[in-house]
Fold:
Amino acid sequence: MISLNTSANLSQAVNLHENIHGRGVMVVDDSSMHRYSAHLCLRAFGINQVYEAANGKLAMDQLGQLAQVPAVMLLDLEMPVMDGIEVLQQLSELSNKPAVVLASSSDEVLISAVATMAEALGITLLGAFRKPVNPTDLADALNSYNVGVCLIDEASGDAVSTDVGQLKSALDRARIQVFYQPKVELESMRVVGVEALARWKNQQGEWVQPSVFIPLAEEHGLIGDLTLSVLDQVLQDMNGWWDQGQYISVAINLSAKSLAEFNLANEIIQRVIRQGIPAHYLTFEITESALVVDLPSALATISRLRLKGFGISIDDYGTGFSSMQQLSRFPFSELKIDRSFINGAPARQYMRNILKSAIEMGQRLGITTVAEGVETEAELHLLKSLGCKQVQGFLLARPMPGRDLIGWVEQDLQRKSTICQTSNIG
Ligand code: C2E
Ligand code: MG
Ligand code: MG
Structure:
């Protein structure tokens, strides 16, 4: 399962979360040799508590008996009695479950499909690899334990109130804030625009994630109000930046439900005209999956906005199962490739192929390609070599309040562009 020669050297580089040391790791694999090599590798990382199970059933039985659930499960997929997929399904039903690292001899597409399934089931996935797993990859996966678990906790919204009354009152009092994440042109490393992302601090002072309150707004008929509240703040912020000589374009997310609202396009057009902002400085992002919900309404809203000169972007491209035929019906000006294709691409050939064909499709259609969720220099480098036009992601900047944006544009990008040049990207 793991090539041993480098694992001992890595022990210095591994800085594991205390949970991993305290609760240990369980290795689930039907090959005793693979279990043994994984065990040795984990010990070399300084993990003393290593449990082993020869198939899924034995692993689940052991989990039921342990006083403390191990922090991480290193899970094979192909096993007799109970395979790894069944284990993931059963884990998803436990309130206290380990994070998972998948390691399998199956092909990459299958491993990736199972990885997607695991995440959809709410399991914290630290990594998914083909055997033999490189100890460096395993170390990186285990090192990400802290980050992964925190992000899931934050995104799950478990700790925050999702009361619709509070959301309504936040909307009435204009308490939904807009943060901005820069979009940078790869060729020049210039900021070409920002994406507006809604943020809500509830009455308890906790930040509620859009993944929690956007569905709530959609469900309770508040999404139109939310969109217009975001638009109003964006127009106000744009005017402020323009006064300082920074003509920054902004992209606003439109939910699938909004597309079906007959009057929304009119409201948007009127408000933008009233604020004196030319339409081509604004783009509306529409998730790929929204296009298949209500085709006639979506086409009407999108076409009207495009007709007035607004940009239209397909968001999260690659996740929505839209056909080429559906895509060709919409007047898009931009294609935003979902971050799942970006993050997997440097290490996976088939992901790279998908990414390449998405970028090529954008080029053939004559529209701008934007890569979302760029987190590493390797991803940035790859995107540039594939001809992607623009990037957005934590590597460059996290979403920030409007008042911080001009400072960032003037100072931070200078630094980032130096980083990129020294890593041979510029
Ligand atoms: P999206 O439109 O695809 O926005 C990108 C999301 O990816 C944002 O999450 C952003 O913070 C996050 N992101 C950016 N770079 C990175 C990165 O390098 N790594 C990672 N892991 N994440 C990154 P956020 O702000 O939580 O928004 C989530 C989704 O909620 C958005 O996805 C969008 O679909 C929706 N949303 C946000 N604001 C609005 C809004 O005003 N209206 C509507 N209808 N939807 C919104
Ligand atoms: Mg978006
Ligand atoms: Mg997106």
About this structure: The first helix runs from residue 7 to 10. The longest strand covers residues 190-201.
